[in-house]
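Table S2 (text version). Query chain:
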Amino acid sequence: MSTNDVLKAQFRDKSAPLGKMRRDGFVPGVVYGKGFDGVDIMVPKQTLSSFFHNSGKVFEVQVEGHGKHLVALDDVQRGHLGGDYIHFSFHKVSASEKTTITLPIHFTGESAGTKEGGVVYPVIHEVEVRGLPKDFPEFIEIDVTELGMNGHWTLKDITPPKGMEWAHSEEDSIVSCHAPRVKAVEETVEEVTAEATPEGEITPVEDSEKQAA
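Corresponding structure-token output:
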């Protein structure tokens, strides 16, 4: 978590019409947490988009007139087909208590299996980790260099970042390397086509035209 990750927000009156707020260029949201009454906030759309793009998953939000809060990104709702942000929620956390968040996975390196014609298939693209807010990285990096052909890694094969622990089963699959799947798909299409047009039942175009006449 970067100490420069501070999002400036305005207090939001819950009675204010959400439609007008969004037309004015703001995105409504909320900060909530255990033993915390919660506060409704709003942030300019462009500010929110830029902040999410450049910040980590744990940061501080400065609410005008309501202080500064250390939070973790909980949920972001987008419009139809993944358009503009329409709502967000932040979970208030304590700097001295472990918490669980979801981090994206970045796969790096060239798998040994790809040199034998294999393809790397990520099973998941994000993972839950538990630790102190100050220790959270922006993402989990997994080097697949040692992943061979027909190889399969689970969470127990990956060492979590220092101070972190996986927050779900270590038996969960992460990534694998296998032969390309395209050929198998093409063979399936050919089989379906053959079944749909069995030999001896194809009517020539000219015969069809004669029958129609």
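Notes on Table S2: The mean pLDDT is 85. The radius of gyration is 26 Å.
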